[in-house]
Amino acid sequence: MKKPIACLLLLLLVSFAMADMMPDFKLPDATGKNVTLQELLGKGPVLIDFWADYCKPCKDAMPQLHTLAEKYDSLTVVMISIDAPKNLPKAKNYLKSKNYKFITLFDSEKTLAKKLGVTNPPHTFILNKTGEIVYSHIGYEPGVENEYEMHIRNLLGLKTDAE
């Protein structure tokens, strides 16, 4: 009886460990150049936000994410559009018109989104510099960016406002 329980516990531990890592990916940016997860890691925390052009909460979150990107030089903010291929020009034009400080990638086939269980945008992930997912949030409500910032400051080794 102990052996099956030990095997089950080991399997659970392995699956939890694997679930905490961002899957490797290669997605095109606005110019068509492929960007990999490895290219984004190493400098510092990475905030990845899945969005779509039709999503008003996604657009409401963008100015707050832009502010975080400007405030923390070692933070990389990546916006991944899950718009269908026919809607990509509209999504690209929207971001271009805003001049945000983001890396913009496109997952129109939703390959990465499916791996992460992203079904409705916005869905935000914060990664440490090795690619471990340290925080995940679905949706956007004003003020959630403060929670993002707390995790980012923690990853950067900075005191949070509560300390």
Overview of the molecule:
- 41% of the residues lie in helices and 20% in strands.
- With 163 residues, it is α/β, with parallel strands linked by helices.
- It has one domain: 3-Layer(aba) Sandwich (Glutaredoxin).
- A hairpin with a 5-residue loop joins strand 6 (123-127) and strand 7.
CATH class (first level) name: Alpha Beta
Q: Tell me the strand order in the biggest sheet.
A: 5-4-3-6-7
Assign the structural class, choosing from mainly alpha, mainly beta, alpha/beta, alpha+beta, or little secondary structure.
Answer: alpha/beta
Termini Cα gap = 47 Å
Q: Which residues sit in consecutive blocks of at least 5 with pLDDT less than 50?
A: 6-19
Q: Could you name the CATH homologous superfamily?
A: Glutaredoxin
Report the principal-axis shape: globular
Put simply, the count of helices is: 6
Kindly report the average pLDDT value.
88
Helix content: 40-55%
CATH topology: Glutaredoxin
Query: How large is the share of residues in beta strands?
Result: 15-25%
Structural Rg: 17 Å
Protein name: Thiol-disulfide oxidoreductase (ResA) putative signal peptide
InterPro entries: AhpC/TSA (IPR000866), Thioredoxin-like_sf (IPR036249), Thioredoxin_domain (IPR013766), Thioredoxin_ResA/DsbE_sf (IPR050553)
Pfam families: AhpC-TSA
GO molecular function: antioxidant activity; oxidoreductase activity
